Every structure is written in C-alpha cells, then in structure tokens.
Amino acid sequence: MRNRLRAVGRTVPLRPDLSRQVAEHLAPAHPRHPWTRATFTSAWGSRDVLDVTLVRPELVAEVSADRPVDQGVFRHPLRFQRLRVDMGVQDVPSFGQEPAAAAG
User: Fold this and answer.
1) What is the mean pLDDT of residues 83-95?
2) Rounded Cα distance, 93 and 100, in Å
C-alpha cells in the first residue's frame, strides 16, 4: 500500500489552543480525496458517526503512542505533541519503520 493514506491511530481531543494552532495550517481536501464518502467514529468499534472535514494530508505532527498495535492500528489513543512544520510528508517514515538517524 505505498503512497496510500491509511489511518493507523487517532488522538485524544486537542485542547482549544492546540486545535486552533493546527487549524491554521490545514487546507481543504481536493474534491477527489480518497476518503470523500468514508465515515468516521469517535472510537474504534463505535457506531457514533462524527462530522468530518477532510483536509489535505500534507501536515506533519509529532505524537506519542503506547506500543500495543492490533492489526496495524495503535490500540490506545495517540497524544499530540507538536506540529512539525520543519518536515514534509516525504520525510516521515512509513508506519512500522524506524526513522532515519539525524545527521550530526
């Protein structure tokens, strides 16, 4: 599944100040976004459908996560740490790969 957007986790709700900070960097999704008709729920296995605004998958964020993964998805919610405006999506390793060592 190279070059395909795939959800592997979800964060806990962001604090209002962080939510505003992230929103400043988001751009609306292209009309042919692959998830245009997808529905999303508040938790894995939940049937409560959320209102969703799709955005371009171009923003990089640093998150912290517990190690448990079930079927390629983090078992517990992720915690937002910070935006990484210094990185592009091409700089992010694929899920399950170790990041490249920083040049020193």
Assistant:
1) 87
2) 8
